[in-house]
Amino acid sequence: MMTKSFSPSGCGFKLPTELTYEILLRLPIKSLGVSLCVCKEWQHLISSQKFITEHSSRSKPLLISSFMEAELKDNDMDCYLSLIDMESGSILINAIKYVKDIHVRCSCSNLVCVSGYGTGVQVINIVTRETIVDLTSDDIYDQILPDGSLLVDAQVTDPFMPRHFGFGRRENTNPVWRKKGCPSLHICSCASCMAYIDGVLYFLPNHKTSNAVASDTVLPFDLEDEEWKNVIRGPLSMYRQLDGTSSISLATLNGSLSLVDLVTHGDDQRPAADPHADIWVLADVDSGIWVKGYTIRLASLLCNMQVVNILIDGRIAFVNGERSILWLYDPKTGACKEVLDLTNYYAGGISIYTGSLLSSANYRSQLD
Amino acid sequence: MAAPESGDGNNGAARMVTLISSDNTRFEVEAAAASLSQTLQLTILDGGGGGGDGIPLPNVDSATLSKVLEYCIKHAPAAANGGAPNATAVDRAELERFDNEFVNIDQSVLYSLIMAAHNLEIEGLQSLVAKKVADMIKGKSPMEIRRTLGFPDPTPEEQAEMNAHMLEYGWAYE
User: Which SMART domains does the record match to this protein (chain A) (predicted)?
Assistant: First the structure.
């Protein structure tokens, strides 16, 4: 005979664990933060990697952005670095309040890099609100690498002419900062012109200042030796003329360097109505052999959007610049949908949160 | 409309099966409805449950079984259409209204339903009751959640641990 009430004794609902699991899966992130504190069993369930992965694949991702409260927009410049729950369209965490507007530059796991005039550059742990790096200089961080290292454009007096780049590795609590002069070529250090693979950073030349070199030339910098390596000739300039308007970017594909050639305006071979991206993979670093890996047809809708991030399930997040609308595009189904209107939030910069808010490791590791 | 070739007895005159609750009440129901249960589906496909045999369900009492079957009968036509991709908006709205009403029940009945849906592997019902319990948890404090679900009050040690966690996960309480 079945017990006809919820558990009269002990934690666990008197429900089998898999049922508790199913129930918890259906809670929004905020309720899960509360449910973690209900009892030990729930805490173990919710903070397990399996649960975190499954829950995040069912829900919309969390968004990091800086925003101004709508009613404050006219008077003050109060600005918040916030984590936004797209599921409810509301703010989950207002991590830090700034008196001037700030721009979210990039994020990796819980670390968020923000910059602003008068604020300088900060790297903040959005969950613990701990400030990891605080530089009141004009240095601009461009990337946080997967291992926690930070990259920085140093001495950027003219944003279009970076003469140096620097990088820091956060070992224990002391970041080691380095500055390194560029080779004779100017590098472009925007996120899409740079890739990081196995201790080597690859850059594209700065289109605006490096007319002497083809825009698909790759400049490798070895982070271990701290030296520039021989340039790698790009795959495109071997057979066609490249001009300053070519849309070329670097990326990592299955651990290899790849060069993405985005063709949205049409060329000799294809009409403009057929926007596509050619992906070239560097098959052999030493001999500089490129292989044309893939050609991806693009929905023309996506051509004028700014890519925010690629989610763990393969969906791509875009922002439509004019209206500050966040879209998600699923390449598997071709479905593209609006997920959040940021107009009332958006101050500058946007990033997808890639950490796991529910993991207890978040908190423990920061106490060490 | 062509009947799907699922072999679940949905063609021609509806095939009936008999289910027997733990307190020995017999329920006669269309095979298509009972087949929403993954557990029963295999037995029914094998030709079981017909005639005077009946399928015994020693884990489900008659009150719960009649509730479960109410759900299955309502959802069977849509399920037979393969998740009802061609169902009208009206049909879907009607099912949604039914579902909302269906779980608007006493907690002890809800608990029995959760267990029955689990034992009988009725996917839609499992999902529905899990959602219902999740809705009961939403917006409550840890203490309120414990009380809602009938957990005993925490011991002083448990209370201290809860408080520590609430500090750690402060973002959830803003």
Answer: FBOX (SM00256)
